[in-house]
Specification:
The structure is a single chain. By secondary structure, the chain is α+β, with helices and mostly antiparallel strands. Among the domains are: about 190 residues, no CATH class; about 120 residues, no CATH class. The chain is about 40% helix and about 15% strand. The protein is built from 24 helices and 23 strands. The strands form 4 sheets. Strands 1, 2, 3, 4, 5, 6, 8, 9, 10, 11, 12 and 13 form a 12-stranded antiparallel sheet that branches. Strand 8 and strand 9 form a beta hairpin. Helix 7 packs across helix 10, helix 22 packs antiparallel against helix 23 and helix 22 packs parallel to helix 24. The chain starts with a helix and ends with a helix.
Amino acid sequence: MKNVLLFTLTLLFCLMPMSHQAQSKRKKKKDQKTEVAKPAPKKNNGKIKPYDQVITKDAVTDDGLFKVHKVGEKYFFEIPNVHLGKDMLLVSRIAKLPANLGGGYINAGSKTGERLVAWERFDKKILIKERSYNSVADEELPISISVKSNNYEPTLYAFDIAAFSKDSSAVVVDVTKFYSSDVKAISGLPGRLRTTYKVRNLDGSRSFINSMKSFPQNIEVVQDMTYNASQPPSARSAETISLQMNQSMILLPEEPMQPRFADDRVGWFTFSQVDYGSEKLKADTKTYIRRWRLEPKDPSAYARGELVEPVKPIVYYLDPATPESLRKYIKEGIELWQGPFEQAGFKNAIIAKYPPTKEEDPDFSPEDIRYSVVRYVASETRNAVGPSVSDPRSGEIIESDIIWYHNHLRSYRNRYLLETGAANPSARTLDTPAEEIGEMMKMVIAHEVGHALGLPHNMSASKAYDVESYRNGAFTQEFGIASTIMDYARYNYIAQPGDQNIRFIRQIGPYDNYAINWGYRMIPGASSPEAERNMLDKWIMEKAGDPRYVYGRQSSRFDPTSQTEDIGNDAIKASDYALKNLKYVSENLPQWTSSQTNNYDDLQELYGELLGCYNRYIGHVLSNVGGVEENLITPRQGGIAYKAVPKAKQQESMQWLHKNAFATPTWLVDKTMLQNIDYAGYTERLRRLQSRYVNGLLSFDRLGRLIDHETLDPTNYSALSMMQDLRKGIWSEANVTKNVNVYRRNLQRAYVDRMAYLMTEDMDPRFSSKSFNVSQSDIRALVRGELNTLKRQVAAAGNRGVNLVTKYHYRDIVKRIEDILDPK
C-alpha cells in the first residue's frame, strides 16, 4: 500500500509541469484563434447585394431605355422589370477597322450581326435569349406547341443579378465582361476571317469598353477589341487585329406593323418566315419586304386619292460634321424621294433637316435611334452606304444611317472625267465645277437613301433605253441614263463629241415611282398581307412588257441584260461608243492633268482608273458569251423565264472581243505617258487584263451553261464552237508566217495556263450555285481535243520563218501542252 502511494505521488509530480505547459499552449491557441477570427470579411458568394453597395455614390449614370451605370472600371445595366421579355434588336457594326480587312470589302459601318433578343429572368440570373421569327405558326393552332419545342432559342449570355433597384422595379446586372470579352454572338470577326488571319485569341489586356450611352429607345456601346493573329490583313509584323465595334440594343415597337408580301418582279430587300400553320401539305415559306411604317394622317382623304401627310414622316438629319458647302446637295438628294412618295399618296413623306443646335435640341445625338442621320465620315475610303435596321417580325425599318466617306467625291470626279470627258468639255479638268460635283453628290445620296427605303440595286434598268437615245439631248434631260437611280449606271459614256444638251449624270426614274408606289401605297380595307395580293399583282401586270419597269437582280451574273456599270440595250454598240470616247480621253489625259498640276500623281491615278473603265466596257460584251437572259415572270404571264442569248449575238461578241480585247490595244500603251508614271510593269498591266478575259470565257460556269443550252436546243452556241473560236483568234499568228509580240505571247501563255486549270481543277461549290461534276462532263474532253489541235498547229508554226523569240515561244508552248496532257 505504501509502495502504491509512493508511485502515485511520483507520477503526479512528474505530470505537473506538463500540465502547466499544456494549459499555456491551449491559452495561446485560444488567443490566436480569437485574433484570426476578428477581421475576416465575408465573401458575397454570388449573393444579391443591397443597391447602394453595387451602385455607389461614385457611380456615373446615364438614363434612357435602361439606366447605364459606370462604377470605377465596371459597367452595369439597370433593367426595368417592364422591359423583361420584350423584343429587342441587338445590332453589331464595325466602327473602325484595319486596312484590307476582308480583302477590302468590309467598310467602317458594315453590319456584322443582327439578332432579335429578349432579357429574361431565371432564378437569380438574367439571360439574354435570342428569339427567332423564322419559324412561326398561329398561337391558336396546336402545331404552335411543336414549333416552339423544335426551335428552342439559344442563350447568348447569363448574368448574375447584382442588386435590385430601391423600389424593386428593376434588376441590376454587371455587363462589363459581356462587352469586353470575346462573345461570338456580337463579334466583328466571324469564323471565316479568324481562320484566314489565324486568330489565336482576344487579348484582354488590350480590349476594353470605350463608351456606353443610353437613349429612350436604344443603348449604344462602343468596344475596342484587339486580337492576337499570326497573319493579320495589315501591319503583319504586329501580329494584331484591332477593331472598334458599335453594339446597339434597340427596343422594338409594341405592335408590329402589318407586313407586305414580296414579289420577285419588283425589287425589294426582304426577309422570310416558315409558316407551319399553312394549309398546304408542307411548311410554307413566306417572304415579305422591308419598308418604313407610313400611315396617313387622314385615312378617308387618302382613300379618296388625295395626297396626305403621314402620321410619322421619314426624317433624316445631317451630321454636324458635314461641310457647309455640301449640305444643300445632301438635303436635296434626300428629298428627291418626295416625288416617288407622292405617287404612293403621301406628301412630305421624307424630310431632310440640318443638324439642330444645342439650343434647339440639347438631347440630339446621331447615336439616338430616334434620329436617322446622314453621317459624314472623315475617311480616305471612297464609298457611300445606305444601311438600315428593320424589325425582323414585320420588316418595318426602324432607323437608318447613310454613311458618306469624305474621299468618295474624288471617285466621281475621276470617272466623270474619264467617262464623259470626250463629249463633255466641263469634265476635262481636275477642278470640276462645284455645281456639277454637287449634282453628283445629290444623286449618290439619293441612291443610298433608296437602299435605306428598302430598294436593292436594279441592274436591268439601263437596258430600258436604246443606245442611240443617249445621244439625244431632249431624251437624256427627261429620262436620264437609266429608268431607276438604283442601277449602277453613273454616267452617260455613250454620247459623242458634238452631241448637244446631253445629261451625263443619273437621276430618279420611272421605275423608282413605280416601286415606291408598289411598296408603300396603303390598300384600304386590306387588313392582312393575303388581302393585298390581288392588288399588288394588278399593279405589276399593268406595267408588264414595258422595259422601264423591269427588275433585274444583281445576283444574276449570268444575265448580260442585268449588269453593273453598263448603259443601253446593246452592249456591243454601247462599248464601241465607249471605247471611242476612252481613246480620245487617253490621248488628252496628260494635257488635262500633269500639264496643269506640274506633277504626275493625278495622271498615274487616272491612268489606273482608265484601265478600269476599259475593263468594264470589255466585260459588258463578254457577258453575252454563254449568257442567259432572266425574265422574272409568273406562269400566268406566259413566256420563258430563262433564255440563252441568241447564237448570232454570241458569235458577234466573240469577234468583237478578238478585235478589242485580244488584239493588243496599243492605244493603252502610250510611251510618253507610261514612262512618266512608272519605271516598269507596262506589259504586266495588259497581261492581267487579257488573262482575266480568257479566264472569264473559259470558266466552269460559262462552259456548263453552253453545254446545257446546246442540249436543250442544238442550234444554240455550243461550248465546242466557243472554244474553237477562241483558239483560232488567240492563235491567229500560228496559221501564217508572223512573229508574235510580247503582249500576244503573254496572252497565249495565259490561254494555256487556263486550259491546264480546266484539266486539273474542280468547281468550288461555294462560288457557284450551279456546280457540277467536271470530270464526268464534256469539259476535259473538249480541252484535250483543243490542246492536241493547238499542239500540232504551233509545232508547225515554229518551223516557219519567224524570229528566234517566236520559235522559243512556240517550243515552250508545245512542252507546256505535253506536260498538261501527259503529266509526269
